[in-house]
Amino acid sequence: MRPFTLAAAIALLATPALAQFPPPGVYACVSENGANLGELTLFVAGDYSFKNVDGNSASGQVASAGTDVNPLSGPLKDMQLTGVFATDDTGKTRFRFTGSDGLDVSCE
């Protein structure tokens, strides 16, 4: 009986982290002063594409733990951005990234 209880407790603790991966979608990104930076397209399994305002597109991968988003490769990593995301009660997801140089980026 105890091994089952322990296994159930571990499964319940792991479930919220697994359920927190950012939802796939297309998100418009702006700087803290409202300047358009481009479009973030998030696919399943952490793949993403970022198209800047000039129309140039590049892809990469992100890792997610809870609500933290950490670029592993691609343009978000090149910009040294790390971030968080939140989904509200209506299902709208917003990302907030911060760069090592102080750049703040919001995508929704």
UniProtKB/TrEMBL annotation:
PROSITE patterns from the UniProt entry: PROKAR_LIPOPROTEIN
UniProt keywords, alphabetically: Signal
Signal peptide: 1-19
Entry protein name: C-type lysozyme inhibitor domain-containing protein
Species annotation: Devosia insulae DS-56
Upper classification of the organism: Bacteria, Pseudomonadati, Pseudomonadota, Alphaproteobacteria, Hyphomicrobiales
